[in-house]
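Bumping with the actual sequence this time:
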Amino acid sequence: MTSGLIDGNTLDGVSSTTLYTLHNRAAFASGAKSVIDDPMAVNIHRSIEYDWSKFGKPAAAAALRARTFDSAVQAYLASRPHASVVALGEGLQTAYWRLGRPDNDWYSVDLEPVMNLRARVLPHEDRIVPVAKSAFDLSWADGIDPEPGVFVSAEGLLMYFDERMAIDLITQCAARFPGGGMIFDSIPEWLSQRTVAGVHLTEHYTMPAMPFSMSSRRGASLASEIPAVVSATDVLFPTGPGWWRFNSMPTLANNRLIRDRRTSVTVLRFAA
């Protein structure tokens, strides 16, 4: 490469979806359609050489989801000021900087190719602990002190795996981090089925299959399904442009015709 930019083509499969979400966050982090304060996303998007056009027209969902996750992390850290944050499958997320570089240990967990790219495009931070492992290799939890509190973030992750793996990961986190919490997002069954059949964003990009689906009602029932989970809350996106604004309205989002057909975000609290 002679452009001086960093090659993004080192990522493929599920790992490449971090480029997709980065592209969408950056598109909605500046200009008249801005819905998120994320200058870091704009900067790293500009620093990566990649055929961004293959993703098609940007959508606001990734930016709105990121804000939803940020709010949950902030809320937990407000209640447990010395807690650690574990960002599973973090990819090129920039939550640490959006939250003002909090004085908390921040474990960034993802596969080695992703972590290598992350190290090249994002600044070093003393509080960020890079962990080049699969989110499902629970050895990433070794050495994390649960006593001050641990909040686990799994943004745009669980849907790419099967239900057994997803529920087991949640169960293991609840068991390992008493008094902790977790946030994850889910897609509805109809969308899962579409991705398994093949969703072509453009002729040059097909989304990886997302075999795991969970409705908002199922997410809210996890407190009765997983012993160490004491509460499970369905959290709506902030108001967004276009039809995304409807996903922020409780009356519409919880309508019996819609609630099981929309994307959802679930926040869990673990037993102390």
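The tokens above came from a reply further down the thread. Residues 136 and 165 are 8 Å apart (CA to CA).
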